[in-house]
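User: tokens in, sequence out, please.
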């Protein structure tokens, strides 16, 4: 009996206590993901930590729905959060399953995972050694097959006038059998919604491609896991997770053995690591912008115009015969100009902050939603895509109506677009900090420039 067969021996009983211990072990194994780069080390306040957003304790515009919309429309990686939310719900439902059902789905321990990983690695090395033979079989019967030059071939070359690149006439091929032209059911022009049988067949194909045994159909939640495999794990899944071939095969081998949540260990580690280390910091930094990109570019342009105007005024006064004190007038343009430029590089428009501190520009995908207050208590809550659904098609949004409508919107409308209220107090504190820091930089830089121009002797040219 080989090592892979030992892994698929009859499962033993598992209790709720074992399930909780398994979940704790998974979390402890991923401890480096959480503690390796915390929210504080990324410059993110504790109030906007990843766990707080997932728990739903943050307010607009930093809610869980805002996070998912950011991943869907900006970072294009919504499948990680969709899978993560489904997994959290699945752990709760699995722990509440009857004791008899839990006995059919034992824990996928780290020891079993290491055993299967060793077997898969050995098979991968064996496959690499067989690569030349596979290539030879692949090109067999084609024009790329390496064949020895025979006498008939030499005579054909001579008949072609001695041209080594001449193509000899091909012999007519026989008629193909009629069944070779039949379309596969997956390529049929008649499309229909996927059924449980379709999900099961797709999952069976994924298990077979990974070299895993057929799973036990009597295990709890087996039909649901077939849908998960078809949606997130399979190589051609519509919401395919960013897994290596090794991790994908490892997950498929584990799922063919059990439906215990521990079978998703590699997939969960990959999705959660991406969410915590990359997506969450990007979302928080992106959410600190109180204006849309055209508005921020407009504010930066105004800032540079103010700085240019200040230099022009200071230069004219320095070349004239006016008293040196008049050159300090340029500081009235230097300070706000530098203030606006520095704040715009942090994603803030100081005009919006000054006149409407508790406001931010509504996101493009919320502008054209129905005028119905959503679950978050602000317009645009009704989404064109049910992105919270654990199952469904891919996360493509290019065909949604708002994409074309927002693209046709002129720049002036985008600059002065619709605004919504900021309810998150931590975000307001961040805006206060950015405004004060940019103001200090503007004051210091303006004072230095003013001192330099005041120290220049008067030109007296006019």
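Assistant: Sequence out:
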């Amino acid at each position: 009996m080989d090592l892979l067969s030992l892994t698929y021996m009859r499962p033993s009983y598992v209790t709720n206590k074992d399930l909780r211990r398994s979940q704790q072990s998974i979390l402890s194994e991923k401890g480096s993901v959480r503690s390796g780069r915390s929210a504080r080390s990324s410059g993110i306040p504790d109030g906007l930590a990843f766990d707080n957003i997932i728990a739903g304790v943050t307010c607009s515009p930093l809610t869980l729905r805002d996070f998912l919309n950011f991943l869907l429309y900006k970072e294009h990686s919504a499948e990680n959060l969709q899978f993560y939310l489904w997994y959290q719900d699945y752990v709760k439902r699995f722990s509440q399953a009857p004791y008899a059902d839990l006995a059919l789905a034992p824990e996928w321990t780290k020891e079993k995972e290491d055993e299967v990983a060793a077997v898969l690695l050995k098979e991968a090395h064996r496959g690499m050694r067989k690569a030349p033979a596979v290539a030879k079989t692949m090109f067999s019967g084609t024009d790329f097959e390496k064949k020895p030059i025979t006498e008939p071939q030499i005579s054909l070359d001579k008949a072609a006038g001695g041209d080594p690149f001449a193509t000899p006439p091909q012999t007519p091929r026989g008629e193909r059998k009629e069944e070779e032209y039949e379309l596969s059911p997956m390529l049929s022009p008649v499309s229909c919604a996927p059924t449980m049988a379709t999900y099961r067949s797709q999952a069976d194909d994924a298990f077979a491609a990974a070299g895993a045994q057929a799973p036990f159909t009597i295990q709890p939640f087996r039909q649901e896991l077939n849908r998960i495999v078809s949606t997130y794990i399979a190589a051609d899944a519509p919401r395919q997770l960013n897994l290596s071939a090794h991790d994908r095969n490892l997950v498929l081998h584990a799922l063919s053995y059990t439906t215990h949540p521990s079978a998703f260990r590699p997939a969960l580690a990959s999705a959660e690591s991406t969410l915590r280390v990359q997506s969450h910091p990007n979302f928080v930094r992106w959410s600190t912008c109180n204006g849309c990109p055209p508005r921020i570019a407009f504010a930066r342009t105004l800032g540079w115009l103010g700085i240019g105007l200040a230099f022009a005024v200071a230069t004219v006064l320095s070349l004239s015969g006016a008293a040196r004190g008049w050159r300090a007038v340029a500081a009235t343009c230097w300070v706000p100009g530098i203030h606006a430029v520095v704040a715009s590089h942090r994603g803030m428009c100081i005009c919006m902050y000054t006149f409407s501190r508790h406001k931010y520009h509504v996101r493009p995908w919320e502008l054209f939603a129905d005028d119905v207050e959503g679950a978050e208590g602000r317009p645009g809550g009704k989404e064109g895509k049910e992105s919270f659904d654990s199952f469904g098609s891919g996360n493509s949004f290019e065909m949604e109506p708002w994409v074309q409508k927002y693209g046709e919107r002129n720049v002036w409308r985008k600059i002065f677009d619709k605004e919504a209220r900021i309810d998150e107090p931590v975000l307001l504190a961040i805006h206060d900090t950015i405004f004060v820091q940019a103001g200090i930089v503007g004051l210091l830089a303006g004072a230095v420039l003013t001192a330099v121009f005041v120290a220049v002797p008067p030109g007296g040219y006019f």
